[in-house]
Amino acid sequence: MGFAQDRTAPVVNTRSGPIRGVAEDGLAVFRGVPYAAPPVGSLRWRPARPHPGWSGTLDATEYGPGSPQAVREGDPVLGGHGAPPFDEDCLTLNIWTPGTDDARRPVLVWIHGGAFISGSGAMPNYSGETFARNGDLVVVNLNYRLGPLGLLSFAPEGGDGCGNPWLTDQLAALRWVRDNIAAFGGDPGSVTVAGQSAGALSTAALAGHAGDRLFRRAILQSVPLAMPLATPAESLARTAAFMGIVGVKDEDELRTLPWPRLVGATAGLLAETMEWGHWTAPFMPALDSGTAPRQPVLNLLDGPGADIDVLVGWTGEESAFTFALGEAYVSATKEQVLRRARDSFGDGAAEAYAAYEAARPGARPVDVLVDLSTDELFRKPTLAFAEERAVRGRPVWAYEFAFPTPAHDGRLGAPHCLDLPFVFDNFDKWSHAPFLAGMDTRIRDGLARAVHAAWIAFVRTGDPNHPAMPRWDRYDRPSRTTMRFDTVTKAVPHLTPY
């Protein structure tokens, strides 16, 4: 990392040393700021360590490299999710702030998703500029270790070889925010952590460390609560399977391999773990007494994060992301989907299939699969979680993002990830994404303003209500109020959770 010579740019003193950013359109922006020591060499698969700091003024004008990952070309939904450069020395964060003053603005920390195998804070999609400018917020996003570098487990019951290096990265980033964000105009006592998909599951896992007072609010977008963390035995078995694919016998031999070979073996693990009609991930976090001693959802019910304010929701057809366009599923027969349904409903599979078919007139077998999987992984566990929070008197706001995209002849509905450009209100950063094609920009932009403003209001006050949207009441047992974001946005009562 080089050192800047332009002394007109904003300079902030952090505990690790001074950094120089750049002024952009009324914001001060700092990119590629190290928040932990590089996890390389002997620190591969070890918990994140404090950064040793630097002498001189660090140039924080360029993004740091992302965590090593495979690049998928021609993604028909997102168009891609993560691009080079990649490097194991990836533990950096990025900051957008309206001013490096003492204003003590609310802070939004964004954790990207990507099934724990893709994504980075450098992606334009996740730029914090819209939230910083429109909400007068300090916004932080970050890189964390992904795939085999972040989720292989060698000693998942604790100790130096913890089962969740990725989570220690995120914790280190939040501690960096707590210790340094005041110098960037932020309030360390008013931090909201938000994430989507794997980033939402990360947020729930981080709530297990709420005793450190790292954040007070959480936004969980499309959190796959029905995907439990692996047991220690399952995690070790996955690591053994990975070593078999790579062709090594133990951790020491694995440690000598360059990261491209590790990342290249991810496809083999995915092939081993795939099961027709199920949305699976090659790498999953592990239960680990040192970092994640319980399932993440429990952190926000009776665990350390029970008092955190929560905003949680799902998209109408989450699983269309995985199933709606693939030929193996588009051409699926009723018999195939019935066999998949038996995994969930047992002897009641035929009755469940008929109910899903009736709920969507003209439904094809793939449509039934999409709706069944969306319910199983996202909608039902999300509403069950909201019910449990409500029973305990814990604040929670629930939403469904139901606005369908016309892309691919409307086959996607409102798939996983479609809410993201609306939340960030930054469609110019998503021009590469096929799933936004064909939208009426007037309706699209109006909905984005409503969603974006709701997220800002929640970050600022713990309540998502704002004047340009219908009243959004907290979720409770009598009303089960859920905000449905669609062509017409409205609060919908009495959604059945099960």
List keywords for this structure.
eleven-stranded mixed sheet; 14 strands; alpha/beta; three-stranded mixed sheet; disordered N terminus; 16 helices; 498 residues
What does this entry look like structurally?
This protein is an alpha/beta fold and 498 residues long. Helix content is 32%, strand content 15%. An eleven-stranded mixed beta sheet has the order 3-4-6-8-7-9-10-11-12-13-14, with helices on both faces. The protein has a three-stranded mixed beta sheet with strand order 1-2-5, with no helix packed on it. Strand 1 (11-14) and strand 2 (17-20) form a beta hairpin. Helix 12 (334-345) crosses helix 13 and helix 12 (334-345) runs parallel beside helix 14. The termini are far apart.
Write the layout of secondary structure elements.
Layout: E1 11-14, E2 17-20, E3 22-24, E4 27-34, E5 58-59, E6 92-97, E7 105-111, H1 129-135, E8 138-142, H2 147-151, H3 165-180, E9 186-196, H4 198-206, E10 217-221, H5 232-246, H6 251-255, H7 259-264, H8 266-273, H9 296-299, E11 309-315, H10 320-323, H11 327-330, H12 334-345, H13 349-359, H14 365-391, E12 396-401, H15 420-424, H16 441-461, E13 482-485, E14 490-492
Parallel strand pairs: 2-5, 7-8, 7-9, 9-10, 10-11, 11-12, 12-13
Antiparallel strand pairs: 1-2, 3-4, 4-6, 6-8, 13-14
Helix pairs in contact: 12-13, 12-14
